[in-house]
Automatic annotation (TrEMBL):
This is GntR family transcriptional regulator. PROSITE patterns: HTH_GNTR. It comes from the Bacteria. Residues 21-88 form the HTH gntR-type domain. InterPro entries: GntR_C, TF_FadR/GntR_C, Tscrpt_reg_HTH_GntR, WH-like_DNA-bd_sf, WH_DNA-bd_sf. Keywords: DNA-binding, Transcription, Transcription regulation. SMART domains: FCD, HTH_GNTR. GO terms for molecular function: DNA binding; DNA-binding transcription factor activity. Pfam families: FCD, GntR. The lineage of its organism: Bacteria, Pseudomonadati, Pseudomonadota, Betaproteobacteria, Burkholderiales.
């Protein structure tokens, strides 16, 4: 039986929107990753032509992605200067990490009460995958799993307001958190913290987990400030 024009057109009409959204999300993810890993360094002016060539896209999806990143505070867009990667002052770094340490601590306190066995098992699997990356000196792989562990703990807290605030502030700190592992000693210290986090989660010790997470973030802050003073 032959389809009518309206029946044939309906599903086809949806395809461009789906593909466009997928492209948009992919471009945003790639640019965010470039910023986190320092490929696009703080204060760097972004060359649209070079980015388009590197990503294999036109300027329209690139500019749409830049608007998203500007809303997240990762880049700054000026009519005269174009787009540049945001650069936080020392005071902003210090104060933002202080706030983030509190958000992480509260996430841990709630997660210890509310996490399910399945969620805990997923975090344990991520932890062991993270350790494997550390053994191979794979910082990007380590960092992605590290951040996913923090993310899962925040999700397990099951507090929508906390989640929204956490995501908004954490985006601004991701590049700095990545840099905090440049020194092997700091990296190994962070691994030890994660082992203690896992123990606290397993025993449902919310107070202990909150203490570990708070200090973990303050240590990250200190490591970032040290890297900044040496550069």
């Amino acid at each position: 039986m032959q389809s009518t024009n309206s029946e044939a057109a309906a599903p086809l009409g949806l395809l461009p929107k789906v593909e466009r959204q997928r492209l948009h999300d992919t471009v945003v993810d790639h640019l965010r990753e470039f910023i986190v890993e320092g490929v696009l360094a703080p204060g760097m002016k972004l060359n649209e032509r070079e980015l388009c060539e590197r990503l294999g896209i036109s300027r329209t999806p690139l500019r749409e992605a830049l608007k998203v990143l500007a809303a997240e505070g990762l880049i700054e867009i000026s009519q005269n200067r174009g787009a540049t990667v945001s650069k936080m002052t020392d005071a902003e770094i210090w104060e933002t990490f202080e706030v983030m340490s509190g958000l992480e601590a509260f996430s841990g306190e709630l997660a210890a009460q509310r996490i399910t066995p399945a969620e805990l098992a997923e975090i344990k699997a991520l932890h062991y995958a993270m350790l494997a990356c550390r053994a191979q000196n794979d910082l990007p792989g380590y960092y992605s799993r590290n951040q996913e562990i923090h993310n899962r703990i925040n999700e397990a807290a099951r507090n929508a307001v906390l989640r929204q605030t956490y995501m908004s502030i954490n985006r601004r700190l991701q590049a700095l958190r990545f840099r905090s592992n440049f020194h092997a000693q700091k990296w190994d210290s962070a691994v030890h913290d994660h082992e203690e986090m896992l123990k606290a989660l397993e025993t449902r010790d919310g107070k202990r987990l909150a203490e570990i997470l708070r200090q973990h973030l303050l240590d990250k802050r200190d490591a970032v400030m040290q890297v900044g003073s040496e550069s």
